[in-house]
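Dig into what follows:
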Amino acid sequence: MSDFKVAPDGLEVARTLDAKGLSCPMPLLRTKKEIEKINSGEILEVLGTDPGSRNDIPGWCARAGHEYLGEKEDDGFMRFYIRKK
């Protein structure tokens, strides 16, 4: 099964970034720009298909101080959830 953190149900998302079809490093670069558009404590949802994002996004959250809430698999893509510091 998955070793990745699974996001809890019922998260209230402030903004969604569609990064499906983008390859590394674009999903992470777009995430960095998009999180600037929400307020502290709000949640950004990132939709992606790049498997590298499974490591890149949690690692960036740890370095930047944001809370990585986890991911969920959807039909052909993943949903990542980040709470802005």
